[in-house]
Write a structure and sequence with these properties.
Blueprint lengths: L11 H16 L66 E4 L6 H14 L36 E2 L7 H7 L5 E6 L2 H12 L4 H5 L3 H6 L1 H4 L13 H5 L10 H14 L2 E4 L3 H12 L22 H10 L1 H21 L1 H22 L37 H11 L2 H12 L5
Parallel strand pairs: 1-2, 1-3, 3-4
Family: Belongs to the galactose-3-O-sulfotransferase family.
Protein name: Galactose-3-O-sulfotransferase 4 isoform X1
Membrane topology: Single-pass type II membrane protein
Length: 424
């Protein structure tokens, strides 16, 4: 593992402004693949226009545990080389559509670290996001100046996808990827995190009541309601309130498939990282992560509630089912035995680094984290958890450990300071 970067101090004022900007803009598992196909959705729910969902597929989410055990301090050994004999050129021009509440913050930390370590240029927003929920526009990129724009390597912060504008900014050989989540569990997470931002969520006294009266609380076009229905479809730049038809949904997913080289699944995060590592031709340590921006607890869903939420989010369900299938096709092409081996290596390395870096085996509440630079912003009604890094580490080792647990806002401030030391 490479330890040669220093983590600069973050000013209290800068962090406060970033957090404030975030809130203001918001206002405007182990390898589980089976030999058999995914099970049919056997509920009686319907989506937009009364479309039955019994023909659609879904897979119940599985927990991808990031839990590790502490051990004594020791220097970081490099991981054993991959058994793969492939030769390739690592990719550094990358577009990541960071969807909301899908483990995107964990993926983003990986991209932050890679770009930081390799002195790549990030397309950074002026604030927390690129004027979300409005479609992405190149003029929202900090430092962008038309024909005099710099060469950007990575575009990876929250935006509503807009391909023509992205292409104005990013090199033609850029690698595009995103990540999706089962719309049922995404809906629960979104309600918890964005309750104060969505008109539909604010009307409901609690999540169970929201599920029971979806059409009563949700009105298209009301403030923040992109969080309440077909959230992923919206983030991908499509019309989340469109009436469902098979041809329209098929057209949407095919457009996405033409644009994105890889679509990951948050429920299969480790398998996703293996596929991503293969596509980017990166090293194992480049894709090892600790889970970030996770909530302390979630509301469990029974089968009926999950089916109702999937039916409510018909477009997201169609999207998820389609790319669930393509994901496992890629796994089969990669090789299931090989995937087993690579997932095991990834988890062993995560465990090894957790034992080196972290105090305790579980994430902790923000008020238990002494260092402001790695303390997660608290937003929404749930507690967002973080990690405590051991103090008795060699400086270079500790710097790398700090990078692995640095939340999005703080790391963005670090990158901003490096790219714009005098401001803009």
């Amino acid at each position: 593992m490479r330890f040669h970067l220093r983590v600069p101090m973050i000013g209290i004022v800068l962090l406060f402004l970033m957090g404030l900007s975030f809130m203001l803009q918001l206002m405007g598992t182990h390898f589980q693949k089976k030999n058999t196909p995914l099970p049919d959705a056997r509920g009686t729910g319907t989506g937009q226009q009364g479309v039955p969902l019994s023909h659609l597929l879904h897979r119940a989410p599985h927990d991808n545990s990031f839990i590790t055990k502490p051990s004594k301090r020791f220097k970081v050994p490099r991981p054993a080389p991959s058994p793969s004999t492939r030769t390739c050129q690592s990719k550094s021009h990358i577009v990541f559509l960071k969807t909301h509440r899908t483990a995107g913050s964990t993926v983003l930390n990986m991209l932050h670290r890679y770009g930081d370590r390799n002195s790549l240029t990030f397309a950074l927003p002026h604030n927390y996001e690129f004027n979300y929920p409005n479609p992405f526009n190149v003029h929202r990129v900090k430092g962008y100046d038309g024909d005099n724009k710099p060469t950007y390597d990575l575009l990876c912060h929250h935006m509503r996808f807009n391909l023509p504008e992205v292409r104005k900014l990013m090199p033609a050989d850029s690698f595009y990827f995103t990540i999706l989540r089962d719309p049922a569990t995404l809906a629960e997470s979104s309600f918890s995190y964005y309750r104060s931002m969505s008109s539909a969520f604010k009307k409901a006294p609690n999540f169970k009541d929201f599920i029971a009266h979806l059409s009563q609380y949700y009105k298209p076009g009301e403030r923040g309601n992109q969080y309440a229905r077909n959230f992923q479809w919206f983030d991908l730049g499509l019309n989340a309130d469109a009436s469902f038809t098979e041809s329209m949904a098929r057209s949407g997913v095919r457009e996405i498939e033409r644009t994105f080289h890889l679509v990951l699944l948050s429920e299969y995060f480790d398998e996703s990282m293996v596929l991503l590592k293969e596509e980017l031709c990166w090293d194992l340590d480049d894709v090892v992560t600790f889970k970030l921006n996770a909530r302390e607890a979630s509301t469990p869903l029974n089968k009926k509630e999950a089916e109702m939420l999937r039916a409510w989010n018909t477009l997201d369900l169609y999207l998820y089912v389609y790319f669930n299938r393509t994901f496992w096709e890629k796994v089969e092409k990669f090789g299931r035995k090989r995937m087993d081996t690579e997932v095991r290596r990834l988890r062993e390395r995560r465990q090894e680094l957790a034992e080196i870096c972290l105090e305790g085996s579980n994430p902790v509440r923000a008020d238990e984290i002494r260092e402001e630079g790695i303390r997660p912003l608290q937003f929404g009604q749930e507690k967002i958890m973080g990690w405590v890094v051991k103090l008795d580490l060699e400086p270079d080792t500790r710097a790398q450990c700090i990078q692995m647990v640095t939340p999005e806002l703080q790391y963005m401030a670090i990158l901003d300071e490096k790219q714009f030391p005098g401001g803009v």
